[in-house]
Amino acid sequence: MQSTRRNLPQLLGDARRWFEEGLSAAMQAAGATPVSPTQAWLFAVLDDQGTTVSELARRMGVTRQTAHQAVHSLLAAGLVEQVQDPASARQRLIRRTEEGVRAHRQAGIVLERLEEQLAERIGREAVDALRAALEAPWGRPPSPSSQ
């Protein structure tokens, strides 16, 4: 018989989707430009001064092509812009537009409210323990030889 116990990555994925869906619904209700979870993740890892597409892809754990597609759609929505990298004539930086800064700030407020709602549902101690566990240094993933 197959176990019904879900593994930790599945549970973490569900938790992430809970926040993504709550964020998306709240932002849509506020009249913000709709964005996909990938676009929202790109926005979250974007530096204020700008970030290259290659670095965005690395931070997101996706291919450069996936990051480029997300950037392209956010450019079209007017939430980010491309600017010349002052450190390199060959590179362009992606950074938030004024509208993007406003949307990012609004999303931060929504995420704080979602965390408070979660604390009301599962308890402040559980949320604090979850945060502490996720913020703790886990080190590099084990190598195949150590498993």
UniProtKB/TrEMBL annotation:
Residues in HTH marR-type domain copies: 5-139
Molecular-function GO terms, alphabetical: DNA-binding transcription factor activity
Listed GO biological process terms: response to stress
Official protein name in the record: MarR family transcriptional regulator
Entries under InterPro entries matching the protein: ArsR-like_HTH (IPR011991), HTH_MarR-typ (IPR000835), MarR/SlyA-like (IPR039422), WH-like_DNA-bd_sf (IPR036388), WH_DNA-bd_sf (IPR036390)
PANTHER family hit by this protein: HTH-TYPE TRANSCRIPTIONAL REPRESSOR YETL (PTHR33164:SF43), TRANSCRIPTIONAL REGULATOR, MARR FAMILY (PTHR33164)
Gene3D superfamilies assigned: Winged helix-like DNA-binding domain superfamily/Winged helix DNA-binding domain
SMART domains the record matches: HTH_MARR
High-level lineage: Bacteria, Bacillati, Actinomycetota, Actinomycetes, Kitasatosporales
One Pfam match: MarR_2
